[in-house]
Specification:
Two copies of one chain form a homodimer.
Chain A: H1 4-11, H2 18-29, H3 36-46, H4 52-64, E1 68-71, E2 79-82, E3 91-95, E4 101-104, H5 107-119, E5 122-135, H6 140-143
Parallel strand pairs in A: 3-5
Antiparallel strand pairs in A: 1-2, 3-4
Helix pairs in contact in A: 1-2, 2-3, 3-4
Chain A binds a DNA duplex (25 and 25 nucleotides) through α2 and α4.
DNA sequence: TTATCTGCAAAGAATTTGCGGGAGG
DNA sequence: CCTCCCGCAAATTCTTTGCAGATAA
């Protein structure tokens, strides 16, 4: 059966080739923020004949078709994630001590951003927010371990 | 006399070479978001012997020393801007029709972000926010033209 | 069929790095 | 002086592209 992303492709009138179907499946089953190399790795597990050039081409196509968005978390490469719908609009908090990325959603933030754009004379069409933080280490208070209280 | 950024370098104990002094001056006098190539162009106007490799190396050094931050506005290259202090923390709204970048600051947003990070168990150490928008075309309302009343 | 897509390898663009001479403290 | 820095050019890394054969509609 077609994956969620594959259905989106059909809906948008894209030609459904085998590589695209596989890439669509991988995207549908990923809930992290893979870069192209990681995507290619997962794609290869399903079909070793698919080249990384096709992954690049397909991600560009999917981006233009509003199926995925590109993200940048500071390292040099592009990361992708599926667009799930307005309700899902979320953002990222990156733990600078581990590099781990977590997602969050906040209504007040959504509203605030729209209003800020409006006040500046714009209609908001997209937005990226990344927070970088260090763990508050609740436990440290108890066992005094603490460790890296330093930043970046 | 030393530029603002040059003074920061000294304060942080960096060796002040001539190329660094020039790059520091350029940064101090820039209020936009130049990429490395643009920086190198401005630097060359002051001292044509400075190579782009040095600009890259220096920007990396300044970034590590928290003198500038790197930004990414969607095109492939890194952009830099001076860090002026907590009070100045601002964000960017990119006009997707022209690519023009404008800055804004919003207290409510600052507070909200800190709280969100806290709720997730983190202390906020940095954050990036970019809004992408299209102009609201105030005039359209008068001549009944556009009427883009909201739908995304 | 027929336009589009794909793999391959080569090309491009942005950024990094090794090296020997040069400069700052 | 002695270490760190710089210019140069070559090397890396990420991404794009030309081409000829393969494929979806």
């Amino acid at each position: 059966m077609e994956s969620r992303v594959a259905r989106l492709c059909i809906e948008k009138g894209l030609k459904m080739t085998e590589p695209r179907r596989v890439i669509a499946r991988v995207l549908s089953e990923s809930d992290d923020h893979p870069d192209v190399e990681a995507l290619h790795g997962r794609v290869r597990d399903l079909d070793p004949t698919i080249s990384i050039a096709t992954v690049y081409r397909t991600m560009k196509l999917f981006e233009e078709t509003n199926i995925v968005t590109k993200r940048d978390f500071g390292d040099g490469r592009a990361r992708y994630e599926e667009i799930l719908g307005d309700e899902d609009h979320h953002h990222h908090l990156i733990d600078v001590t581990t590099g781990q990325v977590m997602e969050f959603h906040n209504e007040a933030l959504e509203a605030l951003k729209i209003r800020i754009a409006q006040d500046l004379g714009f209609k908001l069409v997209d937005h990226h927010l990344e927070l970088f933080g260090v763990p508050l280490n609740r436990d440290a208070k108890r066992d005094g371990d603490g460790g890296d209280s330093g930043g970046k």
